[in-house]
Design brief:
By secondary structure, the protein is α+β, with helices and mostly antiparallel strands. The chain has helices spanning 10-22, 28-43, 54-61, 92-110, 127-135, 190-199, 236-251, 278-281, 286-299, 315-327, 333-345, 350-357, and strands at 5-8, 74-78, 82-86, 112-121, 139-147, 166-171, 179-184, 208-209, 215-216, 229-230, 268-276, 329-332.
């Protein structure tokens, strides 16, 4: 049975979630960065990476070697255009922001920067970090691994051996919204299975296998034991990219790679980021001219019947954000109750949070 849906005004929900994040013991800047990042994920349609993550964050906070409030990034290695950073188990929304500021500064100075980031709690929507780079006029490429329960099966494998391992590219486009390509190397993000489970809906065929390695559409096998596994996108191609993300985002970041079963609620990321200043690499105005010409050419393809036509990576998120700012952010009742329960565990007045969200 489908769960009841609530539609919260974005501003009211933001104020309510700020109260929850304060319960982590976070300083004001951290409260703002975490809240804004989560709300933005919901606004852009990525509910899997939005406020529904807070219950897991709350569990991680209470675990040994789990999430640490008010942590900040530090240098492990500094070779000018090649830097290695440590996140000290801090909120990914804070550590990711600080790391990108450092990388952007180096890329502006030198024309490029290779930056690794390890030991950081959930970095949330990786597209947010690509958006920071493109806002600065930079191209960014991100390889990310996920240190948590192994929930994704390798190609031709029957159980989970790694995480959803995101890959992301951000490209600034003169006078237009940037191209933001951001996706899990699994068919769907793990958080989307949680969203489907909480909504009481099934997944599409071909996305998930059960605990016996058999195809299933029931999202419970990605949410509760006995666990099955999500499949990689594009068969062996998605598996290959996921493997690369694990090695570059994990082994090279100073973090770790998955090679054992995990029985905890923590979700840590490692990320390798490459930043490029196109103005320093491209001659004359060629990058701008060729980018615009190509994007226009692609968009001119006739729409297939029943579709809105070609959309460039990043456009669906822009459209969803505009719609949700008008009509509200949808949150299913099960997810909302999980958030309120998490708030209670953090010593936050849940009635106050609920009232603020509905204001």
């Amino acid at each position: 049975m489908a769960a009841t849906m609530h539609y919260f005004n974005a501003r009211a929900l933001k104020h309510a979630i700020e109260e929850v994040v304060k319960g982590f013991g976070s300083e004001p800047t951290e409260v703002e960065l975490v809240t804004n990042n989560l709300i933005e994920a919901n606004l852009t349609g990525h509910d899997s990476h939005g406020i529904g993550m807070l219950p897991r964050y709350a569990l991680s906070l209470k675990e040994e070697n789990g999430l640490k409030a008010n942590a900040h990034v530090s240098f492990r290695v500094d070779h000018g255009t090649m830097i290695g950073l440590d996140g000290h188990a801090g909120f990914g929304q804070v550590i990711g922001h600080e790391a990108m500021l450092i990388g952007i500064e180096r890329a502006r100075e030198h024309g490029s920067c290779i930056m690794s980031l390890g030991n950081v709690h959930h970095l949330c929507r990786i597209g947010a970090w690509a958006e920071m780079a493109t806002a600065a006029g930079l191209i960014s490429i991100h390889f990310v691994n996920v240190m948590s329960k192994p929930v994704v099966a390798p190609w031709d494998g029957a159980d989970g051996r790694f995480g959803t391992n995101p890959f992301c590219v951000g490209i600034p486009v003169a006078g237009r919204a940037p191209v933001i390509l951001d996706f899990a190397t699994s068919v769907i993000a793990q958080g989307k299975t949680r969203v489907a489970h909480n909504k009481g809906i099934q997944l599409k065929p071909g996305q998930l296998i059960d605990n016996h390695g058999q195809p299933t559409t029931d999202p419970v096998f990605a949410v509760k034991p006995p666990y099955g596994a999500i499949k990689t996108f594009g068969e062996h191609k998605g598996f290959g990219l996921s493997l690369v993300c694990e090695l570059l985002g994990g082994a090279l970041s100073g973090g770790a790679t998955l090679h054992e079963r995990a029985n905890h609620s923590r979700v840590f990321n490692g990320m390798l980021t490459i930043l490029i200043d196109p103005d320093r690499l491209a001659q004359d105005n060629l990058f701008v001219q060729e980018s615009l010409a190509f994007l226009d050419w692609v968009k001119q393809s006739p729409a297939i019947e029943g579709t809105e036509g070609v959309k460039i990576a990043g456009e669906p998120e822009q459209q969803t954000k505009a719609e949700r700012l008008r009509s509200g952010i949808p949150v299913d009742e099960n997810t909302w109750q999980e958030i309120l329960n998490a708030a209670k565990s953090l010593g936050v007045d849940t009635k106050h949070v609920d009232a603020m969200a509905r204001n």
